[in-house]
């Protein structure tokens, strides 16, 4: 793919978790409620205009693209850094993955409400200044969003970064964070483009944020257990035997 052989059946399970994890991050209580105001501010329009005026939606969509590019920049850098760190620990990879799995399970139990980790319930929101209405301003807001919301996204993002580090390959690990960024960023674009049609869905999701948080917790516990027990390889082998065409990917 693009001259870089990074995708194989062994990576497919992690790819699915990364993409779904990004979507769950968008649906989390610290992102979903502010998604519309952010889109409106970036486009220099009001939320009402976005719902009633197609030109306002196009403007919001244009700036949202640069917003997503900004947050993706941060996550790609994180993916590169954690993958490089994972390569340094290849000699102790089994211990590293087991410890990472325990940590991810701990994040999952936080989301499930077994206990609360206080700093994960906070956002270090950065002030990007008056940046509304321009592509550059939206990009800066994307950077600020990724940095500022990292504590709140921490459990899910931490799980994906753990997967990236466990890959022990910079290209593969960075690709996982690209998928996470896509799962988080694409819903912003869809919301900007199709707000009138999605208003009912948004209202329904806001009423069920607690269920989204529990789902996130269950996903993290599952990922952690797979890491601790080494079952990622078993799932990859099952995928390959069930869908032989996957062996030709990459």
UniProtKB/TrEMBL annotation:
Pfam families noted in UniProt: DsbD_TM
Membrane topology summary: Multi-pass membrane protein
Transmembrane segments annotated in the record for this chain: 12-39, 60-89, 95-115, 136-163, 175-196, 217-240
Keywords assigned by UniProt, alphabetized: Cytochrome c-type biogenesis, Membrane, Transmembrane, Transmembrane helix
GO CC, one annotated term: membrane
Main location: membrane
InterPro entries noted in UniProt: Cyt_c_assmbl_TM_dom (IPR003834), Cytochrome_c-biogenesis_DsbD (IPR051790)
Domain Cytochrome C biogenesis protein transmembrane, first and last residues per copy: 14-227
Domain of life: Bacteria
Keyword field contains Protein transport: no
Subcellular location: Membrane
GO biological process: cytochrome complex assembly
Similarity remark: Belongs to the DsbD family.
Protein known as: Cytochrome c-type biogenesis CcdA-like protein
């Amino acid at each position: 793919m693009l001259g870089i052989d990074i995708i194989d059946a062994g990576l497919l399970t992690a790819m699915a978790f990364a993409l779904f994890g990004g979507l769950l991050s968008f649906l989390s209580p610290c992102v979903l409620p502010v998604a519309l105001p952010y889109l409106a501010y970036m486009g220099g329009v009001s939320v009402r205009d976005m719902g009633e005026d197609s030109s306002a939606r196009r403007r919001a969509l244009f700036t949202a693209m640069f917003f997503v590019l900004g947050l993706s920049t941060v996550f790609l850098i994180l993916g590169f850094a954690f993958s490089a760190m994972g390569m340094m620990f290849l000699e102790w990879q089994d211990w590293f993955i087991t410890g990472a799995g325990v940590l991810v399970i701990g994040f999952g139990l936080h989301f499930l409400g077994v206990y609360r980790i206080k700093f994960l319930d906070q956002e270090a929101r950065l002030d990007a200044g008056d940046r509304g209405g321009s592509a550059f301003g939206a990009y800066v807001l994307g950077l600020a969003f990724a940095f500022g919301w990292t504590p709140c996204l921490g459990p899910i993002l931490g799980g994906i970064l753990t997967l990236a580090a466990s890959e022990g390959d910079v290209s593969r690990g960075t690709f996982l964070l690209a998928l996470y960024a896509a799962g988080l960023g694409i819903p912003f674009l869809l919301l900007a483009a199709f707000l009138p049609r999605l208003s009912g869905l948004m209202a329904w999701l806001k009423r069920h944020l607690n269920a989204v948080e529990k789902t996130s917790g269950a996903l993290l516990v599952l990922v952690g257990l797979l890491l601790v027990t080494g079952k990622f390889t078993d799932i990859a082998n099952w995928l390959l035997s069930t869908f032989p065409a996957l062996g030709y990917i990459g």
